[in-house]
Every structure is written in C-alpha cells, then in structure tokens.
Amino acid sequence: MGPYLASYSSVPEFALSIWDWQENILLCSKSQPGVKVTSMSFNPMNWHQLCLSNENSLTVWNIERNDQEHHLKSKPVRLPAEDGSLMCKQDVFFSHPDIQDLYYGPVLPISAIAGLAGDEAETFRPKDDIQPSVHPTVHCWTATSDLYMGCEEGHFLAINVETLKASLLYYKPSQDAKERRRTKFRSLPLLSGDSLKKEEDKRRTEKPVLLAMAYHKDGLYAAGSDGIVHFYQIKGTHYQMDDCFDVSEPITSLVFSPDYNTLLVETDKGSVYVYKPSQNEEVIKLLDACNDHFLSADFLTPGNKYCVSVAISGEVHVWLLEDGTFISKLCLNTQATAMVCCPSSYSVAVGTKVGHVYFIDVTKVETPRVVHRVLLSNLPVRHLQ
C-alpha cells in the first residue's frame, strides 16, 4: 500500500516485515514466535496501518516512522467470548483483588498460591480464568478506518480501531424487508408468504459463517457458508440485510473491480461469478469448476474488461467479463499456491509450492507469457498482495 509492501513469514521466523517496494529495502520487521497468520490487509484509508488475523486473534499494527527509522507497534483486539458476550478484563496477578477485608489472611498472587516462581510465575493463569473467544474468519476495513469481522460462531462484529473495542452487531429487519426480498432476489425463486415467514425464522436462528467481505460506498457485501451474497446496511449496533443471489455452495472470496461496478464472487468448489450490483442484471457464471482444482481469480487492471484465474495445477486462464468468454490459457507446469494482479499494469504474479514467483505479462490477452521468475523461499508462497 503506497510505498509499503508487507509480508509475513511462517516457520521458523514468524515475522511481519515491511518493505519499500520501490527501493527494494527492508524497513522494519517484528517477530511473533509461533503465531500463524491467515489473513492480512492494509487500511485503504491509511497505509501506515494493517490488520492481521488468524483463527484465534485479530491484531492491528501501526507503522511508526521517525525520520528514516520505521517501527512496528501491535494492538491486539480483545474479542468477545464464543457466545458473543463481552469479556471483562481481569486482574491476572492477584486471586481476589477486590477483597479489602484481610480477616482470612493476605491477598496473595495467583502464582504464589500455585507455588510457582521465576518466568513461569509471570505468565501463569489458572485454567478456569481462560475463557475461549470467538474465532475470526474474515475482516474488512471501512471508510472510517474501523473494521468489520465475521467468525466461526456466526457472530458479526464491528471493531473500533482507536479503542480496540469489539461490538456485536444485531439483525434488525426493516418494515418492508419482505417486499424488498421479493424484488431483489436474482437467482432465488420467489417465495410464498409462508415460505417467507419460515425463511425469516431461519435467518434469526441460523447464523451463516461469513468467509468473505467487500466494502462498498452503499454498504457491505458479505457471503460465506450459506452460499448467498448478502448486502448489509449498518447503523450503530444494528444492521439490515438483503439477499442478492444464491450460488448454492460456500463462497470464499468477494472482490470489487477498481470502479466498484462489478463484483467477482469465488466459491470453494472453484466456480467464479460476476455480479453488477448497480444494474438489474442476472449473475454471470464466469467459470464452472466442479472440483477443487481452482485457486484464485482477480480483475486485470487498468480497465474492467478482463479477469484472470489460476488453478492449483498452475494453469492461468484469461476471461472476458462481459459474458464469461474464455480467451487464453498459460501453463506454468508447477503447482500454484497464490495469485495477484498488478493494479497498474497488465501483469500477474503467481506464487508456487516450491517457493518461486512467476511474473506474467498479459498486455496481449490472447498470448500471456512469463517474463520473469524469482525464488523467494524453499517453502510455498502462501500470500501475495
């Protein structure tokens, strides 16, 4: 983002590194021994800020600068309990810090009661004091530099980045929700009154696990385990939700084109759909892959005419967005693990299982070609951005 490039390494370093990609200089790095990261994103409104998350935690990182020196500062977000209740901050040093009456003896540190000393005493916490928190699955930055987050438990959270406070968001249907749903469903059949009531009851009792989010000026598009792309309008701690279309398989990625007119929808089975929220158009199935060989897809920019997809086998495909026409294919003859399109040129970077990154020139969409290859690591390249 801006002049910064962020990378996160796994075994053995487990380090977040910030680079100046224009000068090829490592600016700073911070190690987190044993901490894996499954999702990483820059704040699009402030490129000195990142969010890193895994299945157990979510952390906001700030890039602080003093002249030519750069430093990383982490701010962990305190997540709610698995049932959605907010967890109070406890005194982890004393067993009963609020007790003033010393009739039964002095208030001792928890570690002293456990008979511990040294480094073990500094970090010890009784098992009963450890309360499991929600497990993040996806996060998304907002226009106000805050965060929305989905989790395995089905909760939908808003996070204030300044206070690091996570708030549960609640579904509040509008008065005309039923009528809007009748007119806004694209690929779902129209429902009878009884079916609508059953659907409303199901919506309240069954919470889909969100796996993908894409922020838009009109609201938030999100999807997940139920295979439905939802449109959220959020006010305070409540939200209204409309269903856009159903693809009948879990959705793992939502990506907007640079002009925010086209939404690219990817599923875990390998299908890719194109949807234009501002136009009353049917959803276009761009790629129908009925197996698990599909890896990723992205818009080819500048412009909004083409899309690129890559399969795990290393096959790179170029597609026409207007009607899903297949244009060309390039075989890398190696297993792919990650892909990203450059936002400023017709080029694609593909990471592989053996640690290489292939740079592909797609200036001529009919004949894509590999122009460079570099070995980054002996381990698989898991993320490119």
Automatic annotation (TrEMBL):
<protein>
    <recommendedName>
        <fullName>Cilia- and flagella-associated protein 43</fullName>
    </recommendedName>
</protein>
<keyword id="KW-0966">Cell projection</keyword>
<dbReference type="InterPro" id="IPR036322">
    <property type="entry name" value="WD40_repeat_dom_sf"/>
</dbReference>
<dbReference type="GO" id="GO:0005930">
    <property type="term" value="C:axoneme"/>
</dbReference>
<keyword id="KW-0853">WD repeat</keyword>
<dbReference type="GO" id="GO:0007288">
    <property type="term" value="P:sperm axoneme assembly"/>
</dbReference>
<keyword id="KW-0677">Repeat</keyword>
<keyword id="KW-0206">Cytoskeleton</keyword>
<dbReference type="InterPro" id="IPR015943">
    <property type="entry name" value="WD40/YVTN_repeat-like_dom_sf"/>
</dbReference>
<keyword id="KW-0963">Cytoplasm</keyword>
<keyword id="KW-0175">Coiled coil</keyword>
<comment type="similarity">
    <text>Belongs to the CFAP43 family.</text>
</comment>
